[in-house]
Amino acid sequence: MQIKAEQLYLGYDEENIVKNLSMTPPIGKISVILGANGCGKSTLLKSFARLLDARKGQITLDEKSLSSYKTKTLSTHIGLLPQNPVVPEGISVMDLVLRGRYPYQKMFSSLTKKDFDIVHQSLSMMNIEDLHDKNVDELSGGQRQRVWIALSLAQDTDILLLDEPTTYLDISYQIEILDSLMTINKKKNTTIVMVLHDINLAARYADYIYALKEGELIKEGKPEEIITSELMKEVYGLDCKVIEDPIAHSPFVIPKGQYHQ
């Protein structure tokens, strides 16, 4: 399915956070939204999940207004992993991931074999099958993030939105999470749109990048096309040099800053 924003304005109270933004994330690809803190990245993802209404402009899903979809139907097409999801107290991994199947349940019906099969597949894709009976509160940060992504996978949506899925994780966990998302993208052809703070990881894993500044989209394209020292200066105020990543052959940003000689 194709999600599309056209001349979008979003905000809170009297302030517009996102201004006149149009974007069409490519179907079946990984798109990453970059930008400094407060530039509207999370706000944009919330609007894609219909948690925030547009002030102007519109968001469409397969050329139908997002607002025209029933909530339950929309939940079978778009999944969102927010920045700081709240874990229900005392819930097990299995019970939490099973919640991803609720949009498919009919009134007064119980979960089916298909539901449990999809949940087990989701746990398997995130390599956490052995944690199914563990309490989510007892898990490490990396394990917990895998559970949340498994929940999103169990929702079995065409589009997956992730707001900083690697924040606060050690570098090894970051790589594991992003490798898993790339596998999901390839195996299921899921359209993934995520916010990342690490520019180099974004350049390595993204098929397409959107660069925001003060709520406006200032550049978009493939990483090798748009990740330049000029863009980093414009978006982050960062003096840097951009070289080729010797492993991924993607752009690699080296900040200048101060250093010991």
TrEMBL record:
Q: Where in the cell is it found?
A: Cell membrane
Keyword list, A-Z: ATP-binding, Cell membrane, Ion transport, Iron, Iron transport, Membrane, Nucleotide-binding, Transport
> What is the membrane topology here?
Peripheral membrane protein
Give the main location.
membrane
InterPro entries in the record: AAA+_ATPase, ABC_transporter-like_ATP-bd, ABC_transporter-like_CS, P-loop_NTPase, Siderophore_ABC-ATPase
One example GO MF annotation: ATP binding
The residue ranges of the ABC transporter domain are 3-239
**Is Cell division found in the keyword set?**
no
**What CDD domains does this protein's entry cite?**
ABC_Iron-Siderophores_B12_Hemin
Q: Please provide the Gene Ontology terms (biological process) for this protein.
A: iron ion transport
What's one GO-annotated cellular component? Answer: plasma membrane
What top-level branch of life does the organism fall under? Answer: Bacteria
Q: Which PANTHER family match?
A: IRON(3+)-HYDROXAMATE IMPORT ATP-BINDING PROTEIN FHUC
Protein's recorded name: Iron ABC transporter ATP-binding protein
Q: Which organism does this sequence originate in? A: Kandleria vitulina DSM 20405
Q: What is the lineage of its organism?
A: Bacteria, Bacillati, Bacillota, Erysipelotrichia, Erysipelotrichales
